């Protein structure tokens, strides 16, 4: 055979091989896994890398020395890819669980969505709330853009967030925004891949992210004591040159209320009470009102560098009382209210028989101690119980 013919034959074989690799990638991508993982971006990419696919095809060809069909190669590829995704999603789930194992009990916020559901729907409403833990902090290659990899306790997948520049000062070796830190965020928009399967969905920068603190953790307790215990609301009101002072406040959320629109601008107010029982209003305007979805009555709010303004109830009033606003330099931390619990004793006569093995006969001096959650008013909270409570 002529050299030119050999070259042409080898080129044809190589072209067929590359075509099969591309075909296999498209088949595996469109299959969407075995249903046990979330589609879309997760701990493993939804589209197998080209180099990984080539290596797996060559490995299968060596394993079947007597010959192999396209169906066998596709079957092996699909199985290997599914196992790899399962392994990586399991590792991520274990990591998220370990990061959250010391988290205090608290209620899930209204409008909370999971990362898995974001990938499944390929959509994220700006009004949705994301309760997440930071898995990783990194710089996007070739840029100076910081990214956060976020996970949550309900999902096996993760998602990347372009960090808004107002939070860049909180990134660093000894800074507070790092792996293991819990955050809640809203006002988010999703950046989907330009070509399906060519990349992961990511969350675009949002100004409405709140960093969660835990008073039981030494690092957080030191931050609160050092930065937020200097000023009270009364000291600010008495200070004539208050606009020249950078204030930080620590106060309890007493009320969250919707105000009459100011012109066409939506407004909400959060009534805050400090340790001296002094009250002040934290006013949110326009798009800022979505921040209120991250707060709950009874939680502690730490406000760093709030904008100090004068409050008017409506368009026709002159601003009189002082209030706080969410300015361009304002940072918000939250110490969520823990879900209170109440211990009660149930006697055997209060326990219904669950089957023939359980006796309904009362036994003297026997009782069961159980823990029941309480709501903010101190009453036993039965909202989490799946069955009707029979009295």
Automatic annotation (TrEMBL):
Lineage top rank: taxon: Eukaryota
Residues annotated as transmembrane: none
Cell division control protein 24 OB domain ranges (all copies): 17-144, 149-276
Coiled coil residues, start to end: none
Alphabetized PANTHER family for the sequence: NUCLEIC ACID-BINDING PROTEINS SUPERFAMILY
Protein name as annotated: Cell division control protein 24 OB domain-containing protein
Natural source organism: Aegilops tauschii subsp. strangulata
Record lineage: Eukaryota, Viridiplantae, Streptophyta, Embryophyta, Tracheophyta
